[in-house]
Fold these 2 entries.
Entry 1:
Amino acid sequence: MACNALVSPQLPTRVIDVGSVDEPRCVLVDSTGRVGAYVALSHCWGSPGTVPKTTKATLSQHKQCIPDSVLSNTFRHAVEITRGLGFAYVWIDVRTNGRDVLNLDDPEDWAFEAAKMRTVYSESAITLAAASAADGKGGCYHNRSSGEEFEYPNTSDSRQSIRVRLPVDHAFFDALSAGVQAHKSVERFPLATRKWVFQERMLSPRVLYFTKHELAWECRTEVACECGGADCLATPHDTGYSLAMPKTSFPLANSSAPDISAQAALLERWAILAEEYTSRSLTYPTDALVALSGVARAFDAAGLGAYYAGMWEHGLPLDLSWETVYQPDLHTAESQTEYIAPSWSWVSSRTRVAYPRPKNLAERTRRLQYCCTDIIRITSIPAKTDPFGHVLEYESRLEISAPALCLSVTGVGVDMPDIDLFGWPAQHFAADSNACPTHLVADEVWIACLERRRPEGQNARGNRTGCSLVLEELNGGIFRRVGLIMPWITHDDGGFGEAVEAAPRKTFRII
Ligand SMILES: [Zn+2]
């Protein structure tokens, strides 16, 4: 997918007119109906109060002139760079930076602008990423070591010099790509670890990163940096994943309905995206669906069916088989109660999730033959107007039918990902959100079989076979997913697998 030529799209609702190098200005413009090439900014907000904001009270003043004193370093640098690159407009989320600001000022305006995020980033000419700034003070420019100069005599005995520097640290790129545990790089690469920034990067056709060490470039065909060391990052790692992959494998907005194998590839892409997204964090975990909505919109045109809070119709029921990655240092005693998303959606996880691999067409087809969960009904009701945004807790339900066993919990592994069930101790268990559900001990759970075991030899290399949802009954016959059980990795589970598969079918309404 080549990068589109620069176009002059409709400008976002409000942009800053930066003038030019010869005639600099800094004015907020209401750009309704106007077209032009513009630059977008991707940055970390930092704590509320440290970000400049345009409120209803200052809106008219900022339309005359935005005083330098209200601009943070990052914003000031973005204005200068935009001008220097020869663009007249920069889009900075001046109204939507920081939730406190939004809630106090105009929550409806926030919801409206957030829903338009996809267009803002995907139609920008270029996105400037303040990659090493934890907040507005950090800015885009950094003091770099210019290296050491050494003098030496040459053959004609005149003196010459050579400049030497240490190799550039490219860990930033690793932090951007998959498999990075966000909490480990949050201090070094604040921008790479934020969920909001994830979609800004995905949607932008071109990103210019201002890192501590150098400038780097990423578009749909190229990854490059000043020192040249990023070239190797654009080729797939041994995991089959490359830094350039997120953009190159992104669906085109106008793709027609894909054939069944293209659909499998897109669903695999969505699964990788789920893994990447959940390895990042949010200041407000309840924004998880909203901060994903722009990417979801981009996939919406790709023919995956209806969208349900992070899940695609055509990916079900197999895509219910996400599991959390066990992270001992992030392991908590109990899950928190704030509602993020339905428990059946991976978006509800507060920590990194993983999907079984591979997800290619052949493997999907094989897995479907052994899938024994039927989807009866699924609904997700948007909390606001955006169908891709936050959803209502009790209205967003999944109804399934599956073979299921009710068992009492005799213990949960505090230091290990396992669960003891009456008669079947130490079953391999991934607790949702990586949270140890100690409240279930001495209580009962339902084990709903998602996939039956496959015979030896039909199992993809390194992949598991069979898995079950672990469901906790709430009041009124409503259930909540608490984890995924994978008892059949070794086929030596003391008959647990047979017992679950042979259990009578039961219908569950899961929120
Ligand atoms: Zn480099």
Entry 2:
Amino acid sequence: MANVAILELSRNCAKTVEEIVKLERKIFPKHESLASFFHDELKKKNSGLLYLHVDGELAGYVMYSWPSSLYASITKLAVKEQYRGQGHGETLLKAAVEKCRTRKVSRIMLHVDPLRTPAVNLYKKYGFLVDTLIQGYYSSDRDAYRMYRDFDSS
Ligand SMILES: CC(C)(COP(=O)(O)OP(=O)(O)OC[C@H]1O[C@@H](n2cnc3c(N)ncnc32)[C@H](O)[C@@H]1OP(=O)(O)O)[C@@H](O)C(=O)NCCC(=O)NCCS
């Protein structure tokens, strides 16, 4: 059985950051890629990144931030093509949501291209609702759903 581990990125782990940036460039088109902002994003005090190893290999990652005490955001989620459909995306999303919840936010938000069916389905499965469609969010011909999940304050 494969050995699956979720790890938290430590800011000084340059090798892992480079691996994640490489994967980000491969998976996302330039206008949707955080690759060139990764290092800046990771320097922020209110953001975090979890990554998933399968038998020691990088298989996916999720990035999140909590811009205010009111809400948190899932800023990126990706699983390497050969590792998809095995529950890793869901595991990463779940772990990021738990991290955000420790910040005592009552809402988690995210943006996703409605054409990214696997991602939209995953977010819906995990309780996210579509708030609105933002036209031209990623580029002139690519829209985004803004999605959210609320938690009660108890
Ligand atoms: C979205 C993504 C992270 C899902 O990762 P994954 O590891 O394949 O997902 P999981 O195996 O955990 O699947 C969890 C749920 O996602 C949905 N899902 C996953 N793959 C799907 C597919 N090919 N078609 C439809 N729904 C799918 C399903 O609801 C699934 O639950 P189920 O197995 O009970 O049906 C992955 O497809 C990916 O990296 N896509 C490219 C990047 C991307 O779109 N990121 C999101 C925008 S930032």
